[in-house]
Specification:
This protein is of the alpha/beta class. It is built from nine helices and 16 strands.
Length: about 280
């Protein structure tokens, strides 16, 4: 069945949000899970983490950056248009139904949209919720109001100092740890370097840290092996074993290398599509 776009919003120059009618997914999805979609018959399959869901309306919210042909193609669709394939929910849900104590939820850039439903679920389970929302600049901060409203403590950071703390999310996290704040769990999602250094910040204090990995995926069932990552010296598949893993055990350098492996091919595909369509179809 085609999946209708019910709402579309431009969040910043590179990021868009869509609400898609997908009642089969909305009925059973949980925070931390993702979908794999295909815009049309000739499009590629690519994953997007569920940013929000409404079971009553049968809606799924997705947030994505236009970084290549497939996300540009998705971004060219408008309200009323349909996405051909919208498969999910996939992956293991976040362990949010447990009381930990104090949870720090960290979102970086587009990762803030992914962080939101997980952080909300941690709060609904009775945890004391500290959120740190970071981006390169104020105009790239996402889900600011939503994150603020669910938080017991809310911090913002920007690389250029245009909003909140001037610096990275690790500056706030490190300060909380240095002050002796009791932190029982850290959840982080965003750019791989950010998740790497969040994990390095919490490791000396042995604070349990979960990161949501954005590995390259194709089928989402563990069959293709494209999303393999090394965790604790063992090969894991992000689509079925994750996407969340112990940040202290992830080989982030390997992950970054694999994410960069196809940049040349992606650039060629993007250039060809722009030449053929003008980027509008």
């Amino acid at each position: 069945m085609p999946y209708e776009i019910k709402f579309k919003q431009v969040l910043n120059p590179t990021t868009k949000m869509m609400v898609v009618r997908a009642p089969d997914v909305a009925a059973v999805c949980r925070p931390g899970q993702f979908v794999i979609l295909r815009v049309n018959e000739t499009g590629e399959r690519f994953p997007l983490t569920i940013a929000d869901f409404d079971r009553d309306k049968g809606d799924i919210t997705i947030v994505y950056q236009e970084v290549g042909k497939s996300t540009k193609l998705l971004g060219s669709l408008e309200i009323g248009d349909e996405i051909l394939d919208f498969v999910g929910p996939l992956g293991k849900p976040s362990p949010t139904d447990k009381y930990y104590g104090t949870v720090v939820a960290i979102g970086g850039g587009c990762g803030s949209a992914i962080c939101y439903p997980v952080a909300r679920a941690f709060k609904e389970s009775g945890n004391y919720l500290i959120t740190i929302n970071g981006a390169r600049s104020m105009d790239l901060l996402l889900f600011r109001k939503q994150m603020y409203e669910i938080s017991d403590e809310f911090y913002e950071t920007t690389d250029d100092g245009s909003c909140g703390v001037h610096g990275f999310v690790t500056a706030v996290l490190g300060d909380l740890i240095q002050k002796g704040r009791k932190i029982d769990l850290v959840f982080a999602v965003g750019p791989v370097p950010m998740m790497k250094f969040v994990s390095k910040t919490t490791e000396p204090s042995d604070i349990k840290t979960l990161v949501s990995l954005n590995s390259i995926m194709v089928d989402g069932t563990g069959m293709c092996g494209a999303c393999r990552v090394t965790v604790g010296g063992q090969m894991k598949f992000a689509c079925v074993d994750g996407p969340e893993f112990d940040g202290h055990q992830v080989d982030f350098n390997e992950l970054m290398g694999r994410l960069n492996a196809y940049w040349e091919e992606e650039a060629v595909s993007m250039g060809r599509w722009m030449k053929e369509t003008g980027g509008t179809a």
